[in-house]
Amino acid sequence: MLSALISDVSGNVMVQFPRELGDAIMNGISASDFLKMKEACQDPEELKEFLHTCTFKQHQILLKVRADGS
Question: N or C: where does the chain have the smaller number of CB atoms within 10 Å of the terminal CB?
Fold first, then answer.
């Protein structure tokens, strides 16, 4: 699962994506591969640069919100 905070003019919502969607958002890298990359990373700036390529980009996402707010 990938958790993300999604924001627009109406506010913020925390969303959890299943593995296949999370991998796509993370440029095709699985959680286990990301963990290995993070542990092997010698330069924190390199990791920061990778994360920047995955965030702050546009995605079209259809959300289903339950009436009870959960």
Answer: C
pTM, whole model, 2 decimals?
0.59
Comparing C-alpha atoms, which of 3, 2, 10, 17 is closest to residue 63? 17
> What are 38's two structure tokens?
């993070």
> For residue 69, is pLDDT > 60?
no
Angstrom distance (rounded) from CA 33 to CA 39: 10
Two structure tokens written together for 48: 């920061």
Domain map of the chain by residue range? 2-54
3-state helix, strand, coil in the chain (%, to 5): 40, 20, 40
Tokens describing residue 62: 């259809």
